[in-house]
Each structure stands twice: as C-alpha cells, then as structure tokens.
Amino acid sequence: MSDKLKTAYFFIKIKVGEIINLLVKTATAYVVAGFAVLQVASIVVENVSTQEIFGLSSESLMQILLVLIPSGLPIALLLAYMSKSKKLNTVPIDESDTAEFKSKNYKQKVGVVPFENLNDDSDGEFLVDGIVEDLITELSMIKEISVATRKTCFELKGTSYTAEGLMHQLGLDYLVSGSIRAVQDKLRISVELSDTAENNVIWSNKYDRIKTDVFDIQDEIVTKIINSMIGEIELNSLKRAHRKSTENMTSYECTLRGRALNQKFEKNANAEAIKMLDAAIEADKTNPLPYSWKACTIGQALTLGFLERTDDVMANFGEALSKANELNDNDWNANRILAEAHLTFHDYLKTKVYATKAYNANPNNPHVLSIYGNALLRTGEIEKGIKILEKMYELEPVVLADSNSDRQLAALFFAHYLNNDFEKCREIFEKISEPDLRTWLLFSDILLKEGSEINGESWFGAGLEKFREVDWAIEIDRFHLNDPDAQKEFLQLSERLVAA
Fold first, then answer.
1. Alpha-carbon span 100 to 123, nearest angstrom
2. CA distance 283 to 436
3. What are phi and psi of 110, to 5 degrees?
4. Is the pLDDT of residue 241 over 50?
C-alpha cells in the first residue's frame, strides 16, 4: 500500500471513528432520555386519569411508550448522522472577514518576551516558558490585534533589547514581560505591559496563587492586556468551555514539556516529546491538548524522517488526531493538521472547512495562516489567499525549522502565479536563495511564455541538475492544483525541460 493510500486509510478510520463515537453518544443520550420518560410516565399514570386525557388506559399508554421509544432510536441515530455529515461539509464563516479585509484600521501589535525564571532549579524553566507560550497562543486567538510569533519572541531570550529597539525592529506597539516562580503547588507570576513608543508601564500585577489557578491567571492577564491596548471587547476565545483546558497539573506540565521538546526539531527530542505527551494523556485522558500535540509531533517525525510510515505509526497518528478532534473540535492545532491532510488528498472543500475553523480559533498563528491561505487558493479566493499568506510572511518570514525565508516566499510566489501576476513573481524570485522544484518549474514557465532564453541562467542549470531524476508526476501532484488540465501542462513542460 502506498504512503498516500495508508494516510487516506487512517483518515477514513478517523472519520468512521467520529461517526461511531457520535452514534454511541446519541444512543446513550437517547436511552437515558427514554428511561427518564418512562419513569415520569409511570408516575403520571398513577396520579392522573389517562383515560380522560388521552382516551387510553394507563396500561395501554405505557405499552405504546414501550414500543415507540425503542423504535425511535434508529430515527434519532439517522438524524444525528445527517447533522454531523452536514456540519463536516459546511465551511464555517470566517469570523475575521470584516475586520481583516474590509476595515483599514491599523492593528496594534504586541510581543510577549520570555519571562524571567526565578526558580532555584533550571528544570522549572519549561513551566515558565510554557506559560509564556500559552499567553502568546491566547493572544493570537484575538482577531482585533497582531501578535509576534513564538519564534520571534523566544529568539529574544538571553539577548539585550529595549522597548524602543523592538518597536523599530519588530513593529511592536506593546511589550509584555515578567517573571515566574513555582514552589511545590504555589505559583507567583509578576507581569507588566509596556508601551514601546513611550517606554511606559501601563499595567502590571502580581499573582500569588496555586498552580491549578494558572488558566484563570492567564485569562485575567490576556483580558487586562487587551483592555489596555484597544479597550473592552467581548473575548469569546477566552471562554473556558471553548478552550477546554485540563485541571490536572500533571497533564498540563507534561503537555508543556512535550510541546517544548517538539519545537526542538531533533530526532531524540521528538521521541521524548511523544513519551511526555503520552504521560500527559495518561494523567488526564479528557485533555485534548496532548492528543493534538502528539499528532503534530508524529507528523513532524514523518516529515523529517525521524519515523518510518508504518501501519503502527500511522495508526498512532490517526488515533491521536481523532481523539483531539473528538474532545475539542475547535482545537486550532488539530484542525490545522486535518486541513493539511485533506489538502494532500486534494479534497479542497474539506481543506477549507478545517482550515477556516483553525483560522477562526487562532488567526495569528503562521502555520494556521499557511494552510488557510492555501485552502483559499484552491477554492477560487486567490486574492484573499494572497493577503493571508502575506500576513503569514509578515509575522514569520523564517519558520522555526528553516534557516532562510525560501519556504514562505515560495508559497507567495505560487499564489501570485495563480493570480497571473508574473511581475510580482519575478520580484519574489529574486529574494529566494534556492528555488524548490515547484518554483523552479513555474518560473521557467513564466519566462518561456514571455519568449525569454533560460538555458544559460545559473538558477535554471542548477535546478535542472537537481531535479532531473525526480518523479515529476508525483511532484506535480504535490502542487495540489485544482485544475487537471494545468497539471497535465506542467507535466508536459517538465518533460520538455528535462529532455532539452
């Protein structure tokens, strides 16, 4: 079985698992409700005359209920299935659409620099960094502001910086800093918000609480920051029911450790991350976050070659992703991964469904912006997709695992190619250090259509040497084009270029 078929198989298992889980929950709820109806009915028939009200004896009424309630179960299951299927195929409304594309208002930008670790042991650093990363994520969920990415913020760790310098270097309007001390089950967090233009502290606070209050503290900090930046607004993204975090501190801390190891992009760290996330799941099987980060970590391992794409690995990946989606279908990370998978299958409607959900949950995350922009490109909203990808590039030109901006620029190049803006493609191509296969082929196509000579170009020769032996049918399939004719044309072009 090919890798693509294996992946498809396990995602079919995810979908089947979701349907089975839905039907089990529906059946359970129906049985409980039916039992309650029978209980109430038995009390009612003892105290009122059913003959006068319904024209039936109490025995006849109970017999009818005993027949109707079980026979209604298949109907309830069918309705639940139809409702779920419709939901899975309905693209959510982009909650940021009006603010993002119709308003010209400037979005103020905030950065959260790593907090000072006041613990005696360096082992407590993972907790400090994890809480800071959670604050970045919570702020990223708010569409009314712009947020510096985790990579940008954590690159400042151990460096000297000034508020004014960050204003000019990163375009920050506000800066969040602080310190954290954790002693046994106690937690002390000091935090302050500064205006970078004036270098004034406009809000600060200290929290002396127990560790299990960490989510409430995060909520209050984020709310105070937003109120100080743009005034009071309704922050739906901070509702605990929407975020569905755990109350189990062992699960929370193991999740933070696993997430930190995931972001090292190293083989040993990746393996340790999976172990730590398994420990988080074991501590609280209802916590959705370690499941989504486990799926993300396995996906990273497969992409970087840390793991082979075996049936067991894919099953582990699928189960983690399915459980994350089951426990919280608003989880931005799980929805992002689901969107990426459906893009691979060329199911562009589902790609957009999951990508939009991820974007609504976290509109400032570069990885979410990447898949959302790509979903828009494949569903005909090219100009909007370009704006999303431009925002992605603005927030994080160089992604965490890369050493240059080629990957992000290649995504923008492709978007402008689809928009037939070849002049913009030329401009972007000049900034790319080493063109990937898609960019190399598309730029060759642009120049050939213009009648330009490319054989003497160094970039063309280097690409020809590098890509001559690839399986072009597979590589062009990975362009995920929503146009079979264009796919055939690119395959023919690649054959001509390689044969020349």
1. 41
2. 43
3. -125, 145
4. no
Domains, the chain, ranges and CATH?
3-88 (no CATH), 106-238 (3.40.50.10070), 245-323 (no CATH)
Residue with tokens 């696993």: 258
Q: What is the DSSP string of 65-123?
A: HHHHHHHTHHHHHHHHHHHHHHHHTSPPP-TTHIIIII--PPPPEEEEPPPEE--SSGG
Question: 174: pLDDT confidence band, cut at 50, 70 and 90?
Answer: very high
Residue 86 pLDDT grade (very low, low, confident, very high; cuts 50, 70, 90)? low
d(CA 282, CA 286): 9
| Residue 176, helix vs strand vs coil | strand
Distance CA 6, CA 9 (A): 5
What are the pLDDT digits (tens) for 282-310?
999 999 999 999 999 999 999 899 999 88
CB 393 within 8 A of CB 385: no
Q: Are strands 174-183 and 186-195 parallel, antiparallel or unpaired?
A: antiparallel
Q: How far apart are alpha carbons 159 and 411 in whole angstroms? A: 31
Name the helix (H) or strand (E) containing 460. Answer: helix 458-467
Residue 474: HSE in the Cβ half-sphere, 13 Å Cα cutoff = 7
